[in-house]
């Protein structure tokens, strides 16, 4: 449903530092670029015309702002930034799991969702933090006033997510307990659905019947595949210690997802992890973290065969994926980070069968609360932005 995406963009450009990196002669070129204006937590989507749309966080990590920019030249220059959140300081960058997520839907509508900060309005029921949403119909020149989508199930901690398609469907998801104050075992994924490009949303409903719990301060990710399936990745918290990566698969027209445990992990504390998706031809790819290592796999096959980078870095987290025109896959991630401390980014290129191509690459000076995003240019070059 993502293949018919249209948007119009007018670029007012500025340039920034770019570093080409080549692991060896057999691997594609990988460039690293910095998020405009020193922002963090970039999220990327392309429209049908090939315009790159980027949202990022900038400001106080506890009361931050979200900005949108565009690029028509593969990330070499970007437009002047436009603030997405209508109330200043109504987003959260702290923790790297609560920031803005981006999707592009019918007629190029830009959809953004994020967890509201402690001062954000409107509130969720019970004066709780809201799951906020805004959209733009003009390619990102203006965004509507932010709205809260939680009607019945507040209790945000970790991240929410968003997906959209070319038929006007928009999905915003988050995890929260069945009732306020309940523990992680009672948390589940909730989805609010719009069939009119985000103009109105239904009351949230549970994404699945099974109740595996959800890791409270972990992020989650949704993805609308080209075959119309809606996927979500989140970390469970079954009996507190079973913090497995869990895949939800909502086929078109289905109201209850199938649930698949794709990466078992036992831990008694929150992992503060995020996940990622990408499309490679007809295949859907997913990436996640388990026990300090990052992995990716095709998920729409009967068997989950996980691939990872060579070697072992320090505390690998926050993976992202990109696929180039040759079917090669780049996975990028963070290393050496901790609470309120930046670190490095690293990446590995793989062939279509999951074999590493060349050695991992690395770039330092990842900002506090930073994480990478990645994309491929038409010539096969990968770009990692951080």
Descriptive key words:
single chain; 386 residues; mainly beta; Neuraminidase; 4-stranded mixed sheet; 4-stranded antiparallel sheet; 27 strands; disordered N terminus
Write a structural description.
The protein is mainly β and 386 residues long. It has one domain: 6 Propeller (Neuraminidase), CATH 2.120.10.10. The protein is built from no helices and 27 strands. The strands form seven sheets. The protein has a four-stranded mixed beta sheet, with no helix packed on it. It has a four-stranded antiparallel beta sheet with strand order 3-4-5-6, with no helix packed on it. The chain has a four-stranded antiparallel beta sheet with strand order 7-8-9-10, with no helix packed on it. A hairpin with a 5-residue loop joins strand 7 and strand 8. The relative contact order is 0.13.
């Amino acid at each position: 449903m993502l293949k018919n995406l249209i948007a119009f963009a007018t670029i007012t450009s500025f340039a920034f530092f770019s570093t080409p990196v080549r692991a060896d002669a057999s691997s594609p070129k990988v460039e690293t670029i910095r998020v405009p204006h020193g922002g963090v937590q970039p999220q990327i989507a392309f429209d049908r015309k090939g315009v790159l749309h980027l949202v990022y966080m900038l400001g106080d990590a506890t009361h931050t702002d979200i900005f949108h920019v565009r690029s028509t030249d593969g990330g070499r220059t970007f437009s002047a930034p436009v603030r997405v959140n209508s109330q200043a300081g109504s987003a959260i960058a702290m923790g790297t799991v609560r920031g803005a997520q981006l999707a592009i839907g019918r007629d190029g509508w830009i959809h953004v969702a994020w967890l509201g900060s402690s001062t954000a309005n409107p509130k969720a029921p019970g004066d709780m933090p809201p799951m906020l949403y805004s959209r733009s119909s003009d390619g990102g020149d203006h965004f509507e006033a932010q709205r809260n989508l939680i009607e019945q199930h507040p209790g945000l901690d970790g991240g929410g997510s968003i997906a959209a398609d070319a038929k006007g469907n928009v999905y915003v998801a988050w995890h929260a307990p069945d009732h306020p104050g309940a523990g992680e075992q009672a948390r589940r994924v909730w989805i609010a659905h719009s069939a009119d490009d985000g103009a109105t949303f239904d009351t949230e409903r549970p994404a699945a019947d099974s109740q595996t719990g959800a890791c409270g301060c972990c992020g989650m990710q949704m993805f609308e595949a080209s075959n119309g399936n809606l996927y979500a990745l989140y970390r469970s918290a079954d009996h507190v210690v079973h913090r497995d990566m869990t895949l939800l698969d909502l086929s078109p027209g289905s109201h209850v997802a199938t649930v698949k445990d794709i990466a078992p992990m036992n831990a008694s504390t929150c992992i503060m992890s995020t996940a990622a998706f990408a499309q490679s031809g007809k295949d859907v790819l997913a990436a996640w973290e388990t026990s300090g290592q990052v992995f990716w796999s095709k998920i729409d096959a009967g068997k989950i065969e996980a691939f990872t980078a060579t070697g072992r870095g320090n505390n690998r987290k926050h993976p992202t994926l990109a696929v180039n025109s040759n079917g090669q896959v780049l996975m990028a991630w963070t290393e050496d980070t901790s609470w309120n401390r930046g670190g490095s980014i690293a990446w590995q290129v793989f062939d279509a069968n999951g074999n590493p191509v060349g050695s991992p690459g690395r770039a330092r000076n990842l900002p506090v609360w930073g994480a990478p995003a990645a994309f491929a240019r038409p010539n096969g070059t990968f770009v990692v932005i951080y």
